Each structure stands twice: as structure tokens, then as C-alpha cells.
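Chain A, query sequence.
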Amino acid sequence: MQTEPKIPAPYTEAWGFWGTMHEHAAAAWPLAIVTIAETTCESYEVVRAFLDSRHGRHFADEVWNQLHAGDGLKNAVRFTTVRWMAWTINRRTSRQYDIPRGLPYLLGMVIHCGIAEGAIAD
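Chain A, predicted structure.
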């Protein structure tokens, strides 16, 4: 029998995704970790690095936009994930973060944050 990996806690609850989600943070965190990990095929640790970053804060802003538009939390996280995967890394972002141009934006940012935090080995 295979056990599910444990959802890692945020390194900080003051900012990033957790800090931006306020009263929804405890429910939104595991939804975001699992949804982003399944979508990007990255580990929970790598996704945690993304969600704890300023990019995770921006991701949370988009989730909030969907909540205010009337979506439930699960649908808001899913919609935001799909939306960020539809965007691509442009030339400026590629130069700024050394991410290949044309890569799905969410995937690029998740990998970039994972490398920056040491969650992905060079």
C-alpha cells in the first residue's frame, strides 16, 4: 500500500500564498499544493517554495479574484492554476529569471522558486 506524501507547512504564515489568503489559508494551502503539484509534476516541497514566494502571493491574489467572482475555493484554485499554465514565459521574464522562453508561466515560476530555495538540486 502506497501512502500519500505529507503536505508541507508553509515556512512563513506572514506572507506569500498563506499570508494573502487570510481566513482561507488553512483550507486553501493543501488545495493549492496538491493542484499545482499534480499540474506541474513537481514535488510538494518545490510547490511550497513557490507558494511561499512573492509569486505565491500573486497566485493567491488571483485565487481571491475568483472567490470574489463567486467561485468556491477549490474551483478558484483550479481556475487560477489552469490560467497560469496557459500563460507563457516571455522574453523579459526569461531574461529576468533565467527561465526558458515559451515555458508555461506557472511551471517556470514553480521550478525557478524550487531552485532558488534549494528544493531542486542543480
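The CA atoms of residues 83 and 106 lie 9 Å apart. The mean pLDDT is 94.
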